[in-house]
Design a protein that fits this description.
single chain; 0% strand; 72% helix
Length: 142
C-alpha cells in the first residue's frame, strides 16, 4: 500500500495534468478525486497544498524547467513529464517539507507509473541538473 503522501502526490499530479490539458478548475478536479474516498484528510490537505503551490508558481516553475532542459521546448515536452517536473521542483525549491532526494525519488516513481519508458530518466536528469546548480538557495520561499 503506497504511503498517504505518495497517494496525495498522485492525486496532485493527476489534477495538474487535467488542469493543463483541459483547463478545468483545480479545486473541482481535486474534489472529484476526493469523492472516490481513497484519500484521508491529511493526504487531501497535502494534495491541495501541492496543487495550489504549483499553480501559484507556474511561471517560475516553467522558467526553471526551460532553463534546465533547453533541448526540450515546453510546448513539445510531454504534458505528464512537465507536470511531474513542476510538482517536484515546487517541492524541492519552494515547499521544502521533504528532503531533496525524497522529492526526486517520488518524481521518478511518478514518471515510471504515468510517463513513457524514457520519462523517469528525463525527469531524473532535469532534477539532477537543477539540484546540482544549488538554485534552492536563490529561490524565495512561497
Amino acid at each position: 500500500m503506497p504511503s498517504l503522501r505518495r497517494l496525495a502526490r498522485t492525486v496532485a499530479l493527476q489534477t495538474l495534468f487535467e488542469v493543463d490539458v483541459t483547463l478545468h478548475d483545480a479545486d473541482e478536479v481535486i474534489a472529484r478525486h476526493v469523492e472516490d474516498g481513497t484519500l484521508e484528510e491529511g493526504a487531501v490537505k497535502f494534495a491541495r497544498q501541492l496543487v495550489k503551490g504549483v499553480i501559484g508558481n507556474l511561471d517560475k516553475l516553467d522558467k526553471i524547467i526551460s532553463s534546465n532542459a533547453p533541448s526540450w521546448p515546453m510546448d513539445q515536452m510531454a504534458k505528464i513529464d512537465k507536470n511531474i517536473l513542476r510538482l517536484a521542483i515546487f517541492e524541492i525549491l519552494f515547499n521544502n517539507e521533504v528532503p531533496v532526494k525524497a522529492a526526486i525519488n517520488e518524481a521518478i516513481e511518478l514518471a515510471k507509473s504515468f510517463g513513457s519508458d524514457s520519462s523517469s530518466r528525463f525527469v531524473n536528469g532535469v532534477l539532477g541538473t537543477i539540484v546540482s546548480k544549488d538554485i534552492r538557495n536563490t529561490m524565495n520561499p512561497v
